TrEMBL record:
It comes from Boudabousia liubingyangii. This is Phosphoribosylformylglycinamidine synthase subunit PurS. It comes from the Bacteria. Its EC number is 6.3.5.3. Part of the FGAM synthase complex composed of 1 PurL, 1 PurQ and 2 PurS subunits. The lineage of its organism: Bacteria, Bacillati, Actinomycetota, Actinomycetes, Actinomycetales. GO terms for molecular function: ATP binding; phosphoribosylformylglycinamidine synthase activity. It holds the Pfam family PurS. NCBIfam families: phosphoribosylformylglycinamidine synthase subunit PurS. One of its GO terms (biological process) is 'de novo' IMP biosynthetic process.
Length: 83
């Protein structure tokens, strides 16, 4: 079975309260090198057999029309998961 990874992130101008909460927790846990966090979404789409260009094209369309909200999010990656 093949797997396609779709990654979606909030647009840069959109506030990210989850990212801010994570950033606030970092120092309490000893992580002091990070100055910013943005939290996004990752989807794993499974297909029978190897991933083809047709599968990727369908995944891109699904990412734009269903998996993301184009008003506040960008689809940043649609790719086959390498073994």
């Amino acid at each position: 079975m093949g797997v396609i990874i779709v990654e979606v992130m909030p647009k840069p101008e959109i506030l990210d309260p989850q990212g801010k909460a994570i950033l606030g927790a970092f120092p309490r846990l000893g992580f002091t090198d990070f100055v910013g966090v943005r939290q996004g979404k990752r989807f794993e789409l499974t297909v029978d057999g190897a991933v083809t260009e047709a599968h990727l094209e369908q995944a891109r369309k699904a990412a734009e029309e269903l998996l993301s909200n184009p008003i506040i999010e960008n689809v940043v990656s649609v790719r086959a998961l390498e073994d």
